[in-house]
């Protein structure tokens, strides 16, 4: 059989995929090498990278040894616990107001949509919201955001395409102050994290907020596409270097992706795992919950 | 995280215990393939794809004679890379053009993959090829998507068609009629991003397909996609029988294993890649380059292409002449710096070079360093610039002071100059293939 046909038939078997696989893995068999290989498959398929997967499995192995476990079914809770514990170290502290959230990320991850949803969320909490459309690069980004702003009747400050993004932020902060707003949400243009000139521009935008609005609690939230693989780590690392990230939001988890890179991100630094996006409507932005998240990996 | 050391280094480590060259044994291959597997997985090649690939390559590699010119590590990489290249196959497949115009190109993919941007890029590319494309806005869901496409069409200088936000199938049909009347020979249909498991929206795509019978159905996929890429590609292909794939955002630092995964499950050629935010940033797909990139070995060929596209011919001719005469000087180096500046971001370029990809991060090498180097060269006397051998220790001190840098900086530049001289010499004498292939030290 050729490579392609072999693979396709291979995938058919695994298409019923992780859930069935899991039932099968944890059903009372002996713990052996095959068991760990299956687990490895599941974790890596969820986009938990090779090294973190290895760490998790090593931890599992040592706990199995310590607790003298013999059956695979005893391992399920244990495995979930190990991963949940990694995530729990990065729980999100509560917001205080006034609040400024700078939203950053690479192109197409859903920054603008996330801001729209955030605006809704804060408006529902009876907070007064100002939105800064500082994505002055992408064609029609401003229009897209304005639709969201209008929906929640938030004050919307933007600049023309090609305008100086920092100036837009400056204006929006002045507006937020004069209107006594509780929350300012700042949309920025998507940029690939390895472009140092664009990252320098972002750094400048970031500084405008801390300089002009010191009284606000300042969050720097990166939005990462849930279908991303190992590149998520590079994104977070380089955006962190540019603006000093505080929060992470993972979008598009309503597909079949598991977003397992979050486990690796939790291992990387003290970022608050803040939100996950699971759909297109405003209430599809959920607070991150470590336990639910891990359950979803094993569903 | 990326590889801490390159695949090549790790393989060489495994093979370092081998004293003499012979045939690759099963055990060695097994050890080596463990590293290759990690490299593939870290590049986001799908688990199953990687597994099958490894099995296949292992069979091939056992018993292979190690060539005299290669170390065992290099030999394994060569086998792996050749195999990867052939699997990703058909070097830069062209767009199918219908014999009865208009040629209809239908874009599809997940949200945020870059369909709208890519539609504009395709439009411009085809226009440059003498076609008269029309972009059609069928994304009726995302706020302002239509406007984004309209602006893209304007930037590309191609025609644009919209018809509200009610029925994308009707819009597509009317667009084709309109194109026929207006004499547009290519119609590019931008559709809304959707999840492959969204039944209703997948059905919509099937209906558009049925209505307009596209010449090309191109799946647009983000180069940074992880393990799920196979399910996405498989589902789109099964529902729509795509004709090809476009990989976007390849100008990022992702290793792009998605390209192998997608090709493996669909068997469809990867036709183009998006490599930047500007409307001209579209390139044909090169399987050989991608193979090196997936293995974390950089992308020298793209680098060279990029260099060729953006340098000033006349200026570089001078440099080249000097190279030919083997009299490459700091003057030439200065010109080069300016040319490199035009090529775009330095760290992008560096990230494409083998061995640098994972070691250098943004900030290690950047424009400020370039500026520093420029200042140093400008602090040299004309004589020194033309004859770098003249620069002795005492001169270096003076140059450092003159350029407000340190002697270490000056030394660093001189070292880099010497390396560049060597590299350019190799390029010039057509040894590029050799440098990239056999003789390159991993």
Give an overview in words.
The complex is a heterodimer of chains A (299) and B (442). Chain A is an alpha/beta fold. Chain A has twelve helices and eight strands. An eight-stranded mixed beta sheet of chain A has the order 3-2-4-1-5-6-7-8, sandwiched between helices. The longest helix of chain A is centred in the N-terminal third of the chain and has 17 residues, at 50-66. Residues 6-16 of chain A have low confidence and may be disordered. The two termini of chain B are 20 Å apart. Chain B has three domains: 7-88, Four Helix Bundle (Hemerythrin (Met), subunit A), CATH 1.20.120; 103-297, P-loop containing nucleotide triphosphate hydrolases (Rossmann fold), CATH 3.40.50.300; 302-436, Orthogonal Bundle (434 Repressor (Amino-terminal Domain)), CATH 1.10.260. In chain B, helix 2 (26-42) runs antiparallel to helix 3 (47-61) and helix 14 (330-343) runs antiparallel to helix 16 (367-378). In chain B, strands 3-2-4-1-5-6-7-8 form an eight-stranded mixed beta sheet, sandwiched between helices. Mean pLDDT of chain B is 82; it is low at 354-365 and 430-442. In chain B, strand 6 (244-248), helix 10 and strand 7 (270-274) form a beta-alpha-beta unit. Chain B has 442 residues and is an alpha/beta fold. At the A-B interface, helix 1, helix 3, helix 7, helix 9 and helix 10 of A face helix 2, helix 3, helix 6, helix 9 and helix 10 of B.
């Amino acid at each position: 059989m050729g490579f392609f046909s072999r693979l396709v038939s291979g995938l058919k078997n695994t298409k019923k995929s992780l859930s069935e696989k899991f039932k099968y893995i944890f059903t009372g068999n002996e713990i052996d090498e095959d068991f760990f290989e299956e687990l490895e498959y599941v974790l890596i398929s969820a986009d938990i990278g090779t090294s973190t997967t290895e760490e998790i499995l090593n931890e599992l192995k040592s706990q199995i040894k310590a607790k003298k476990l013999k059956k695979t079914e005893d391992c399920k809770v244990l495995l979930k616990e190990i991963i949940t514990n990694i995530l729990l170290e990065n729980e999100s502290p509560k917001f205080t107001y006034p609040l400024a959230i700078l939203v950053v990320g690479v192109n197409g991850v859903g920054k603008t949509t996330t801001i729209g949803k955030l605006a809704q969320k804060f408006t529902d909490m009876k907070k007064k919201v100002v939105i800064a459309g500082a994505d002055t690069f992408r064609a029609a980004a401003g229009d897209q955001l304005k639709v969201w702003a209008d929906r929640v009747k938030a004050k919307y400050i933007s600049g023309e395409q090609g305008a100086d993004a920092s100036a837009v932020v400056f204006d929006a902060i002045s507006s937020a102050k004069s209107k006594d707003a509780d929350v300012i949400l700042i949309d920025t243009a998507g940029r690939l994290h390895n472009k140092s000139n664009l990252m320098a521009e972002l750094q400048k935008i970031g500084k405008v907020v801390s300089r002009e609005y010191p009284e606000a609690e300042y969050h720097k939230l990166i939005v990462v596409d849930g279908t991303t693989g190992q590149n998520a780590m590079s994104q977070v690392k380089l955006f962190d270097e540019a603006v000093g990230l505080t929060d992470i939001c993972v979008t598009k988890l309503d597909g079949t992706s598991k977003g397992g890179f979050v486990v690796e991100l939790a291992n990387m630094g003290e970022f608050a795992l803040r939100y996950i996006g699971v759909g297109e409507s405003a209430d599809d932005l959920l607070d991150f919950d470590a336990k639910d998240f891990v359950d979803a990996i094993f569903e | 995280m990326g590889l801490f050391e390159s695949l090549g280094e790790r393989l060489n480590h495994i093979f370092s215990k081998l004293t003499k060259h012979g045939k690759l044994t099963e055990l060695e291959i097994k050890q080596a393939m463990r590293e290759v597997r990690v490299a593939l997985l870290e590049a986001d090649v799908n688990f199953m794809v990687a597994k099958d690939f490894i099995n296949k390559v292992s069979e091939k590699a056992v018993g292979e004679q190690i060539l005299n010119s290669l170390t065992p590590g290099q030999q394994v990489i060569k086998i792996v890379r050749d195999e990867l290249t052939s699997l990703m196959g058909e070097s830069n497949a062209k767009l199918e053009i219908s014999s009865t115009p208009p040629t209809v190109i239908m874009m599809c993919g997940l949200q945020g993959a870059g369909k709208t941007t890519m539609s504009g890029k395709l439009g411009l590319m085809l226009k440059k090829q003498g076609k008269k494309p029309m972009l059609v806005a069928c994304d009726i869901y995302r706020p302002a998507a239509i406007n984004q496409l309209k602006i893209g069409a304007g930037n590309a200088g191609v025609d644009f068609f919209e018809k509200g936000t009610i029925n994308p199938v009707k819009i597509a049909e009317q667009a084709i009629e309109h194109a026929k009347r207006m004499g547009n020979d290519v119609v590019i249909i931008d559709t809304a991003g959707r999840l492959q498991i969204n039944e209703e929206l997948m059905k919509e795509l099937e209906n558009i397909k049925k209505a307009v019978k596209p010449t090309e159905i191109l799946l647009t996929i983000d180069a940074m996609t992880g393990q799920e890429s196979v399910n996405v590609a498989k589902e789109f292909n099964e529902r729509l029988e795509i004709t090809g794939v476009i990989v976007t955002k390849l100008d990022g630092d992702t290793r792009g294993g998605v390209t192998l995964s997608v090709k493996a499950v669909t068997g469809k050629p990867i036709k183009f890649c998006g490599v930047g935010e500007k409307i001209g940033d579209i390139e044909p797909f090169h399987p050989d380059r991608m193979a090196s990139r997936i293995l974390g070995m950089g992308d020298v060929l793209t680098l060279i292409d990029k260099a060729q596209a953006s340098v000033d011919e006349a200026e570089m001719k001078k440099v080249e002449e000097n190279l030919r005469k083997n009299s490459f000087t700091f003057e030439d180096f200065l010109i080069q710096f300016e040319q490199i500046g035009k090529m775009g971001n330095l760290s992008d370029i560096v990230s494409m070079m083998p061995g640098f990809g994972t070691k250098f991060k943004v900030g290690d090498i950047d424009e400020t360093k370039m500026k520093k180097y420029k200042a140093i060269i400008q602090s040299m006397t004309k004589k020194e610039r033309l004859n770098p051998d003249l620069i002795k220790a005492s001169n270096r001190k003076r140059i450092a002071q003159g350029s407000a840098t340190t002697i270490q900086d000056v030394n660093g530049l001189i070292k880099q100059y010497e390396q560049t001289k060597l590299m350019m010499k190799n390029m010039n004498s057509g040894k590029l293939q050799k440098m990239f292939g056999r003789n390159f030290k991993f």
